[in-house]
Amino acid sequence: MDPIVITLIFLAFAVVMFVTEKIPLALTSMIVCIGFILTKVLTPAQGFSGFVNSNVILFVGMFIIGGALFDTGMANEIGGLITKFKFVKTERQVIIAVMIVAAMMSTFLSNTGTAAVLIPVVVGISSKTGIPRSKLLLPMLFVIAVAGNITLIGAPGNLFAHAALERATGTGFAFFDYGIVGIPLTIIAILYMALFGYKFLPSRVPTAETFEQAQDYSHVPSWKRWLSLGLLLATVFVMVFERKIGIPLHVASSLGAILLVLTGVITEKQAYKAVDLKVVFLFGGTLAIGLALDVSGAGTLIAGAVIGLLGEHAHPLALLAAILIITGGLTQFMSNTATTALLVPVSLAIAQGMQADPRAAMAATVIGGSLAFTTPIAMPANTMIFAVGGFKFIDYVKAGIPMLILMMIMSFILLPIFFPFF
To answer: What pLDDT score does 112 carry?
Structure first.
């Protein structure tokens, strides 16, 4: 069978499985990876090349560093800053405070981990202030999704695009490259929710206490908390100045993780437990999709079809709109990580077919894939707060659609300025 046909069949399979999640995402990516090898679209070395990618090492190191903040209780202390803002009194002020702290954490930690830490904090604030927790949890969720675009390590999708760009051009994104769009979007999201968005927030009463209570970290020495934070900040510093210092991102994350274990902040067992193997397998497996699209020529075929629809001399804004609409639409119904992983190689092929700057296509795909606001299944954190806040599906739709439209419009304005296609 023609390699192009085989690649398109596996791509269609991945799309269906990623959307329906009939089988786990990581398992889907591995089935596709192995399938390409068995059908000889890729050699074994090509198929498994994603697992020896430097970005996998970066993933593992940052999982351990982030895990240390959770295991020592430092993440909880950062989340608890909300209760120490003495000027926070009104409902809107509380919403702003929750969003600011959530944005700070999501910039450097996983969306899911940030939500897990802040849920019990928000529930406690709700009990003290009388503000329905549903009015605090959705704004927290929205800003977590947007603020993940501030740094290279803010969300797994950011690294997927970085790896694809690195393979295509030899140079990936710098640590804060996404932030030139992510920071304005985060600020706009907070201002919008404070001025207008709060009107769309539901007032729900959960039928049962179905959230995980905050853990007791009183037995953890304070020096472990502060050292975990210090090593995170030191690692981030090295990453920010990677090109000046000369230490690659994956080496910096590995060094930070090693120091956490050597200094006794966390145990070796805790370090292993912090690594999310699902993301590692999803990352390694889906990189094979991008490689197969390139090697087989299927990527060129898809790019040609899209370019044909847009027009041979399509305006760059038409391409940007297409990427944002496709990624922003898909991410409402499938994992934001899966959306980005799936569409990164497709967007890259389209950009190369139009001789456009692949950085622009990758940035647009990452931003569009992060706008997971309007359904409880758009990202794991959305699902985590569903029962806690007593939400109904329509609550996400009513509050999320205005936010989605605003973020789409602002992305459409900001991306061409900072990431022009030509």
So the answer is: 80
For the chain, how far is it from start to end, CA to CA, in angstroms? 37
Q: Give 392's contacts (C-beta < 8 A, 6+ positions apart).
A: 202, 204
Residues 415 and 368: beta-carbon distance below 8 Å? no
* Distance from C-alpha of 320 to C-alpha of 272, rounded to nearest angstrom: 40
**Cα gap 288→330, rounded to integer Å:** 21
* pLDDT score at 312: 61
3-state secondary structure of 372: coil
Dump pLDDT digits (tens) for 302-322. Answer: 767 776 776 666 678 888 998
Q: Is the pLDDT of residue 144 over 90?
A: yes
Q: Quick count: other Cβ atoms within 10 Å of Cβ 184?
A: 17
Q: Cβ-count burial of 40 within 10 angstroms (0-12 exposed, 13-18 middle, 19+ buried)?
A: exposed
Structure-model confidence comparison of residues 26 and 362, the more confident one: 362
Composition of the chain by helix, strand, coil, percent to 5? 75, 0, 25
Q: Which two tokens stand for residue 56?
A: 């996998």
d(CA 370, CA 354): 25
Rounded CA separation 23/17 (Å): 7
Does residue 375 contact residue 403 with C-beta atoms inside 8 Å? no
pLDDT tens profile 395-417: 999 999 999 999 999 999 999 99
- Contact criterion met (CB below 8 Å) for 327 and 339: yes
Q: How far apart are CA 275 and CA 280, in angstroms?
A: 8
